Amino acid sequence: MPQTKKENLIEEVSGIPVADQYRWLENDDEDVKKWIVEQNQYTDSFLRNEYQKKFSDELEENLKITTLLNPIPACGRYFYRERRPDEDQNVLYMKKGLQGEPVVLFNPNDKREGNTLSIDYWSVSQTGKYVAYGISEGGDEMATLYIKNVDTSQELSEKIVHCCHSSGKWLPDDSGFFYTRNPRPGTVPKNEEHLHSKVYFHILGDNPDNDALIFGADRPKDDMIQIDLSPDGRYVSIKVGREWTQNEIYLYDREKKELKPFIVGIPASFSLCFLTDKVLLDTNYHANNYKVLWASYEELDKPLDEWEEFIPEREFPLELIRITKNKILVQYLVNACSEVVIFDHQGNEIGNIPLPKYSNLTGISGRLAEEEFFYSVESFLFPTILYRYDPKTLEYVEYRKMDNPIDPEDYEVRQEWCTSKDGTKIPMFIFHKKGIALTGSNPTVLYGYGGFGENENAIVYEKLDSVDRKRWDFCRCKPPRRRRIRREVA
């Protein structure tokens, strides 16, 4: 087995000595390249055998499925991405009405050899007349932003290059949008093209070279930026940070053409959400599990400590906020499972979204101008199912679902609790076929993850016997996932 050298490197972080013996593997040099080759050769000596094709064929079979994403409703139109079994990339669709025929807005498949084009992101205008979407090639994520008139199926003439992970927000009248853009090629040092993100405003039909710079001049090159827009289009919130634990917020007033700091210098995380009559602030400021504060538009200048509490901190962490025309949907992480509590726009708790036991909410799509919304759920027993809230019947109805290769009735899930060295209780899920004798000798897959502010479950799949290995029953039934980097209102 190839050996990996260790270096005696110790750094002090917040007064604590931290050893980083493998820092050298971050280098781009011959030693690292040699290590990679040796590791690959050693791995291949185990994997490149008569079982590999069987495994590869079964994996391909399980991946050749239709993947579904939540639709975005916009004035009777529904925008969504979908990848079918014979496609390498997601396709962007629109349909008029829930039962309308899907209309392809952009299909990246078959446009390049190897299907290397992909849709990185997209945003729909307020009326649903326009859609802006970013296309990158070869996985470089340095997308070019295109704009399509949905009514005519024509692309607008302007194309905006170097929009990596661009965050776009449309004006209420569809006349333009705010977005983030990276520097043009050759204007910054090599390998910094994906940095130096800035906020611009684009007017439809205008040359992108004329787009007004709103935020980012003389800022640190590693700013990570997200933007949101008030319902009347007056205020732009600019969330900016360079680490995962805290951020700043700036406000741009379109009416006054004025940019000013809103929250700076506070060691906490903040996200701004706009309602029609008030502003919400989702934060862990003096609230480890997050809480929501509020202020009126007329009181935006008052100190943070004078903002009123809208949704108090709870026992379990607040993970996500989505806002619709008359509801605020708040997702909590409860014992490693999702729970969604519904509030009205005055902060009154009015119910919960029904979710299956031991399931994970993978997304909610809604808009402040729309009453309906969609949400997707998955669990150990079933892959993604999309649900729709029907504002006419007040019911949560199944909208679409992925094919399930297993019968959920044949399996069972339970939650157990382990105790760590410091006494902390850690949840774990055990997933297995019904009737299995839990003797401790069954072939088992143990899975866990932690990093980047995400919380994921440690899980155990237990197989019945060697005969049961004929098919990987669980390939399409993903374990619940948890994300903390997520707080934008659609």
Question: Quick gist of this model?
Answer:
The protein has 490 residues and is mostly beta strands. It is 7% helix and 41% strand.
Topology (SSEs and partners):
Elements: E1 10-13, E2 16-19, H1 30-47, H2 50-63, E3 67-68, E4 72-74, E5 77-83, E6 91-96, E7 103-106, E8 117-124, E9 130-137, E10 144-149, E11 154-155, E12 169-170, E13 176-181, E14 198-203, E15 212-215, E16 224-229, E17 235-241, E18 248-253, E19 258-263, E20 270-274, E21 279-283, E22 291-295, E23 308-311, E24 318-323, E25 328-334, E26 337-343, E27 349-352, E28 359-366, E29 373-379, E30 385-390, E31 395-401, E32 411-419, E33 425-433, E34 444-447, E35 450-451, E36 454-455, E37 458-462
Parallel strand pairs: 33-37
Antiparallel strand pairs: 1-2, 3-5, 4-5, 5-6, 6-7, 8-9, 9-10, 10-11, 12-13, 13-14, 14-15, 16-17, 17-18, 18-19, 20-21, 21-22, 22-23, 24-25, 25-26, 26-27, 28-29, 29-30, 30-31, 32-33, 34-37, 35-36
